[in-house]
Amino acid sequence: MLKKILLASVTLLSLSGMAAAENLKEFRVGILGGENEADRLRNYQCLADDLKKEFGFEKVSMFPASDYDGVIQGLLGGTLDFAELGASGYAKAYLANPKAVEPILTTVQTDGSMGYYSIMVARKDSGMTKVTDIKGKKLGFADPDSTSGYLIPTVTLPEALGGVPVKSYVASTGFGGGHENLVLEVLKGTFDAGTTYGSGVGDFKDGYTSGNLRKMVDKGVLNMADLVELWKSPLIPNGPLVIRSSISPEMKAKVTAFFKALPKTDAACFSAIEGGDYKGYADVNVDFYKPVIDARKATIGG
């Protein structure tokens, strides 16, 4: 009898949990740091409006963290329901707790690829034209949890530098506080060169079709004529849209369907939250990010 009562209690708890997840009154969205907070909130307001309209949420809360780790910790702690992460940020969350969030979608570039590039830039008037010119110079990274702004350069730059570790090749390294700030610090001369990201599709002079450089150009805070490209990484998997794992499968499916349709249902909003031109979204799971997870574990350790 006791066993039956316990089983019944577990079943009721499971059903009530599913119902709670299915009937969320508030949907909490994390927004990665690195760009002006007012710009991030403005770009995401349309998403909040669309989510409320589609799902009937009483409230859609946007949380623009000051850095990448703020969003990662919110996801790990269960205080956020959804976010778009970089591949390295997702790897950090996965290594801390593989059951906290699930990757559901990633962006597809206009050429059909599902990747982007780490791009090292310097001031045009610096006299530098190639990656080996950073020898003995000050190199800036975007954020410790950025894929393109830190992890991938740390792993792949040594090959371009003749096998020498980055920190042994340059005079000093530092962080710019996100991608936009990093580029601004390069322009100011705080760093001689710095790593940011772009689609690699289209022309450098335009800031490519999407990515941080393109977003800065579109906002009018960057003239690409002031920069030179020193290096481009191998292709990096586009970061995932992730959702809290404890949300019901039904709600996960509905949220996934909502985002897959967004490029058609609200193309302007899709462009605003993604920062440039993309074809749409494609399904992904943890397997897509295993190489990045392995690279982060080996290089950073978590």
TrEMBL record:
Pfam families reported in the protein's UniProt record: Phosphonate-bd
Signal sequence residues: 1-21
Gene Ontology biological-process annotations: organic phosphonate transport; transmembrane transport
Family annotation (InterPro entries): PhnD (IPR005770), Phosphnate-bd (IPR017797)
A Gene Ontology cellular-component term: ATP-binding cassette (ABC) transporter complex
Top-rank taxon, per record: Bacteria
Stored NCBIfam families: 3A0109s03R, PhnD
Family statement: Belongs to the phosphate/phosphite/phosphonate binding protein family.
UniProt-recorded name of the protein: Phosphonate ABC transporter substrate-binding protein
